[in-house]
Specification:
- The longest helix is centred in the last third of the chain and has 25 residues.
- The chain is α/β, with parallel strands linked by helices.
- Strand 4, helix 4 and strand 5 form a beta-alpha-beta unit.
- The protein has two domains: 104 residues, 3-Layer(aba) Sandwich (Rossmann fold); 106 residues, Rossmann fold (3-Layer(aba) Sandwich), CATH 3.40.50.
- The strands form two sheets. Strands 3-2-1-4-5-6-7-11 form an eight-stranded mixed sheet, with helices on one face. Strands 8-9-10 form a three-stranded antiparallel sheet.
- The chain has six helices and eleven strands.
- Bound molecules: glycinamide ribonucleotide.
Length: 216
Amino acid sequence: MGKPCKTAILISGSGTNLQAFIDAVDSGDLDLELCAVFSNNPDAFGLERAEKAGIATACIQHADYPDRESFDQAVIAELDRFEPDLLVLAGFMRILSPRFVTHYAGRILNIHPALLPLYPGLNTHQRVLDAGDEWHGSTVHFVTEKLDAGPCILQGRVAVLPGESAQELEKRVQAVEHRIYPQAAGWVGSGKVKFSKGESWIDGAKAEMPRVVTFK
Ligand code: GAR
C-alpha cells in the first residue's frame, strides 16, 4: 500500500465537514493523512476541532493583507510547509486568486451546497425554496479559476419537503455533505478520481456528469 494522501483542510467556520473527515479517518473508513487545518478566521470553531484531534493548525487573517494576491501568497507559503498533496475547502469562505488555483492545480476540492451547475454563490437553500425546486443537495467538485464551476465529482441530493424552512433544509443538506465529502476526497486520494485537461475522470473515464447519490 502507498502512503496516504497528505490532505490540508481549509475552513472559515464551524467545521462540521472537517469533523466528518476526522471521524472517517479515525474510524478507518477514509485513508487520508490530515496534515493541517488552515483558517482565515481565528475564531473558527473548526480550529478547536482540529486541535482536539491532534492536527496541526494554522491561521492567517485576510484583514492583515492589503489585497487578495498577497494574502493568497502568504497562505501558499504556510500550507506548503505541510507539503499537502490535496487541499479540501470545507466552508472556506474566500475566493481564491488564479495564482493560488494554479499553484495547486487539480489538487483542490470544494463542496458547494447546491446541485451545481444550479445555484453557484451564496444563500443556496433559500434560493431553492424560492424557486420551488423538487430537489436540492450538495456537490463536491475540483476547484478551477471560475467560482463554483470546476468539474464535478459527486453529488448528494435530497427531496425538498413541503413547508420546510431554509434552516431545516440546510441541516439535511449538511448531513449529506458529511457523507459525500469524505467519500469523494477518498476517491481522489486513492487515484480513483483524477483531474486532467480541465475535466474530472472517474475510473479512467471522463466524467461528463458527477456521480449522484439520493438520500432520504
Ligand atoms: C457547508 O455547508 C459548505 O457546503 C458551505 O459552507 C458550509 C460549511 O459548514 N460552503 C459554501 O457555501 C461554499 N460556497 P461547516 O463549517 O460546518 O463544514
